[in-house]
Design brief:
five-stranded mixed beta sheet; Aldehyde Oxidoreductase, domain 4; about 750 residues; seven-stranded mixed beta sheet
Length: about 750
């Protein structure tokens, strides 16, 4: 996703604080204990503290924080300290595997001067006023913005609390605050060797005026930021006690298995539920506009009941749609002039005078998210309230969805958020929430609505199919003097955040393409919006940079081959004005041993990328044998500015690379008669553990502000793999997935 995606949305975001205060119930889980604090439900887990045998409680999931009670010092929305010295940090982002439940607390704890081992984590409730991300214009998690957003505000939140506690202690001792320091959860006055714990200062600190613009630590004084901290949520994820949306259990809860219309845009005509009702445990059949839900006492009853239904559908116009018709539409649209995203120099004149012209068309397919945890949502609708239990990247949008379906006021909608079993943009959407509330409206008990893996893949909201026409004019030395790039595809922003569209340009669709790291004097980049006939599209782990980097870096390789110049040297000669990009290219290629001879059937490819505020270069080594591609090794150099937790950076790059290999080699969603042809991991193939390559990550030290890290690894890996295949086979593959193209080449 791009920055500012929610900047111009209409409507007022609801404040659910009053609804949260009414929560009075316990959830019972097999591997966890539910703890009530005031009116807010906190799902608590015991976690071993690092370095010793004690246990501490870390709150993960639940409906978050409410207004602090007496005896709690809360100078801002992110820090709470009680009289016992318990430090609770409110994390404004959602943990979906990217490590924010460790990295953001590190930022606060660094300035607050408390050990990471001794804190409690609490997930923020839906509240745009307190937890707005200005980079995204709303309370959501995505766009690789979490640390970029949190870098200063979270440190300032910790520093503000620290200053107030020091001032409270200084007043108590009647000394100059400058003579005091904070350390390890206490304030110390070195001259008199006095010390007092934070808990003992809570009441006094709470009475002080909150200072503005408190000083932050000099990076040279960091004790925690930049260290290799262990993930705070790993133990629970290993032993199975971590709580995701699928783990919700409520008194009197029933289970719903969904059968959605197989054709996008289709509706329910009729259903024969005679056989389904005969199955033990099936309670009720619920009809909604585009599907049927079978309600059961347990999952197995609901699933068996769903399989027994005999359903007739109104398929509508979507039944005529196929991948071929969509691609034909894109090809025709590519002949139109697009909305201009960038125009430098005189492109037409440069092409006329050029020695050589190179033209190409690149295509990238629809992609499903295929998150580990399929779509699910638990809902209890009452006459005067609606409670929703779900893992979502957009908690306030979940509130809006509940209000829209029920007709209740937003303050009557309570959303309990949980850990996400994978997001990748899928949980930026609330279609699953909307559907679950529609089902729950017809019941008088809580219902957990679950999608099977088949439903999840066949009714996803997909990464758009993109069709790129790209041309370059080369001078006598093979250097590009003009560059023209037309991007054709669906606009996610036009639906998700219309205000982000400027002069017909979708900023996500043109990202990377409209901001090349290379020095090309004449450029024309334009965008043609072409929607894919009823197929829903959505963000997918770095949509714009992922699709843009594949095209740009593959095409740069083509130009290097045309000029008969080594692809690394070719890039170096064009990166003089982008030193950070040049540096990561040099680091990656040196670490990979670029320039050595590769055995027959093996190849090495390279890519460079600047996106999400970070600079990446990747080198991929592959083997191609009878059309089968094996990625043997990937070397990555990353300059993502100042690093909070190197372990997280490395893990995110490793995960992004594996995600990219899957997409580059295997993944595509195809449409026939309005129906998705893939339905599970049998035909929507995912990289297996034994197929994973060695991934070497080299983090370049930088004093720049942090950049994003969750999505760039996926974006930079795809072209490196495609370029390596060219080096191994001499076949230039311009369409993903490359596995299919190799077989047919």
């Amino acid at each position: 996703m791009s920055q500012g995606l929610l900047e111009a949305q209409n409507g007022k975001t609801p404040d659910c604080a009053s609804a949260l205060v009414t929560r009075r119930a316990f959830l019972k889980f097999s591997a966890s204990v539910a703890a009530m604090t005031g009116g807010g439900l906190l799902l608590a887990f015991t976690m071993p503290a690092r370095g010793h045998g004690d246990v501490r409680k870390t709150v993960i999931g639940g409906d978050g924080v409410e207004t602090p009670q007496d005896g709690v010092f809360a100078p801002n929305a992110f820090v709470q300290i009680d009289r016992a010295g318990k430090v609770t940090l409110i994390v404004p982002k959602v943990e979906m595997g990217q490590g924010v439940y460790t990295s953001i607390p590190m930022l606060i704890a660094e300035e607050l001067e408390v050990p990471l081992d001794n804190i409690t984590i609490d997930h923020a409730p839906p509240d745009e006023k307190r937890f707005m991300d200005p980079l995204l214009g709303g309370q959501l998690t995505g766009g690789s913005t979490s640390i970029r957003y949190a870098w200063e505000p979270m440190r300032r939140a910790g520093a503000t609390a620290r200053v107030l506690l020091i001032n409270a202690a200084a007043q108590q001792w009647q000394v100059d605050p400058a003579s005091c320091r904070a350390e390890n959860g206490q304030v110390i006055h070195a001259d008199t060797k006095r010390s007092v714990s934070y808990g003992e200062l809570v009441d006094a600190a709470a009475k002080l005026s909150v200072p503005q613009n408190v000083p932050l630590k000099d990076p040279k004084d960091f004790k925690l930021i930049g260290t290799q901290a262990k993930r705070l949520d790993s133990p629970e994820k290993v032993d199975g006690s971590a709580v995701f949306g699928f783990d919700v259990r409520l008194p009197d809860m029933v289970y719903a298995a969904i059968v959605n219309c197989p054709v996008f845009g289709g509706t329910l005509a009729s259903v024969d539920d005679t056989e389904a009702k005969k199955i033990p445990g099936v309670r009720q059949i619920v009809k909604i506009d585009n599907g049927v839900a079978v309600i059961g006492d347990h999952t197995w009853a609901a699933k068996r009941g769903a399989a027994a239904l005999k359903i007739a559908w109104n398929e509508g116009a979507g039944a005529t749609v196929s991948t071929k018709t969509i691609v034909d539409d894109l090809a025709v649209a590519s002949e139109r002039d697009g909305a201009v995203a960038r125009k430098d120099g005189d492109v037409s004149n440069a092409f006329t005078k050029a020695s050589t012209r190179v033209d190409a068309v690149y295509q990238q397919p629809f992609l499903a998210h295929a998150t580990m945890e399929p779509i699910n949502c638990t809902v209890h609708v009452k006459p005067d309230s609606c409670e929703i239990w779900v893992g979502t990247q957009v908690p306030t949008r979940a509130v809006d969805a509940g209000a829209q379906v029920t007709g209740l006021a937003p303050d009557k909608i309570v959303v309990h958020n949980f850990l996400l079993g994978g997001g990748f943009g899928r949980r930026l959407e609330v279609d699953g929430v909307t559907q679950a509330v529609k089902v729950a409206k017809q019941l008088n008990v809580p219902v957990k609505v679950m999608w099977t893996r088949e439903e999840d893949i066949q009714h996803d909201m997909y990464r758009p199919y993109y069709y790129d026409k790209i041309s370059a004019a080369l001078d006598a030395n093979g250097k590009p003097v003009a560059w023209q790039h037309r991007i054709v595809g669906s606009s996610i922003f036009a639906r998700f955040a219309p205000g982000a569209m400027k002069n017909g340009v979708d900023p996500d669709a043109v990202e990377v393409a409209a901001d090349l790291p290379y020095d090309v004097p004449n450029q024309l980049i334009d965008y043609v919006r072409q929607e894919p006939r009823a197929i829903p599209t959505a963000f997918w782990r770095g949509v714009g940079p992922t699709r843009g980097t594949f095209v740009v870096e593959s095409f740069i390789d083509e130009l290097a081959a045309q000029a008969k110049i080594d692809p690394v040297k070719y890039r170096r000669d064009l990166l003089g004005k982008t030193p950070r990009a040049l540096n990561v290219l040099n680091v990656a290629t040196q670490a990979a041993g670029w320039g050595g001879t590769m055995p027959k059937g093996q190849g090495r490819g390279v890519s460079v990328m600047h996106a999400f505020g970070s600079f990446f270069s990747m080198v991929a080594d592959v083997t191609v044998d009878q059309g089968e591609v094996r990625v043997n090794r990937v070397v990555c150099a990353v300059d993502c500015g100042m690093v909070v937790n190197p372990n997280t950076v490395e893990a995110q790059i490793q995960g992004g690379v594996i995600f990219a290999i899957t997409a580059a080699l295997y993944s595509e969603i195809t449409i026939d008669r309005g129906r998705v042809q893939q339905n599970n991991f049998t035909d929507y193939r995912i990289l297996r553990i034994h197929e994973s390559p060695v991934i070497d990550v080299h983090i370049v030290k930088s004093s720049e502000a942090p950049g994003g890290i969750g999505e760039p690894g996926t974006a930079a890996a795809m072209p490196a793999i495609a370029n390596a295949i060219y080096a191994a086979t001499g076949k230039r593959l311009r369409q993903l997935p490359v596995g299919n193209q190799l077989v047919s080449a």
